[in-house]
Amino acid sequence: MAVTLKVNGKTTTVDVAPDTPLLWVLRDVLDLKGTKYGCGIGQCGACTVHIDGVASRSCNRPISELAGGEVVTIEGLSVDGAHPVQRAWVELDVPQCGYCQAGQIMSASSLLSRTPRPTDTDIDRAMNGNICRCATYLRIRQAIHRAAQMAAADGNGGRRETGDGGQGTGESSFPKSLLTTRTGA
Ligand code: FES
Ligand code: FES
């Protein structure tokens, strides 16, 4: 079955069995290996990507459901690692083994796209399904607050951050340009 969808900004047609999970298409057909296989049953979050702008599991989504859709993987989140979540992850040295981290970053960036200044409760709720066997949860939470600060600073023309611990004013200033994928040639 030929399915056409947009992956990381590029229109792509794949010819696979209709029940092939998106994760298999990404890794084995399109060679996008950043998205990881964990449980294969939608329970761990390692395979999280954005589907039509929302953090979604890719291990249990048949490709046939995605015709005309838009998928963003960790490779497409930014051209050069400049997305605020990626910068915050580096600054706070979040990963340990790293296996879960692509999924964590995709869930975190999806959260910030709809809740630019999340509370701890918002973060815990949004990240609840992303399992980390190395238990980096505290650094993940700190990094999401830091990413929110960075995004707010970017949205304010790069002025200095407020240093308010990420709690801020709740203003929605996450830069829209950073919520979109890089555009493919
Ligand atoms: Fe998809 Fe675990 S591999 S949720
Ligand atoms: Fe090792 Fe999360 S960093 S599983």
Helix and strand topology:
Elements: E1 2-7, E2 10-15, H1 22-29, E3 49-51, E4 54-56, E5 70-72, H2 84-91, H3 101-114, H4 120-127, H5 137-155
Parallel strand pairs: 1-5
Antiparallel strand pairs: 1-2, 3-4, 3-5
Helix pairs in contact: 2-5, 3-4, 3-5
This protein binds FE2/S2 (inorganic) cluster (2 copies).
Quick overview of this protein structure:
The chain is of the alpha+beta class and 185 residues long. The protein has helices at 22-29, 84-91, 101-114, 120-127, 137-155, and strands spanning 2-7, 10-15, 49-51, 54-56, 70-72. The protein has five helices and five strands.
Describe the structure.
α3 packs across α4. This protein is 31% helix and 11% strand. The chain is globular and about 45 Å long. By secondary structure, the protein is an alpha+beta fold. It folds into 2 domains: 2-76, Beta-grasp domain (Ubiquitin-like (UB roll)); 84-178, DNA polymerase, domain 1 (Orthogonal Bundle), CATH 1.10.150.120. The protein has 5 helices and 5 strands; from the N terminus they run ββαβββαααα. The two termini are 25 Å apart. Bound molecules: FE2/S2 (inorganic) cluster (2 copies).
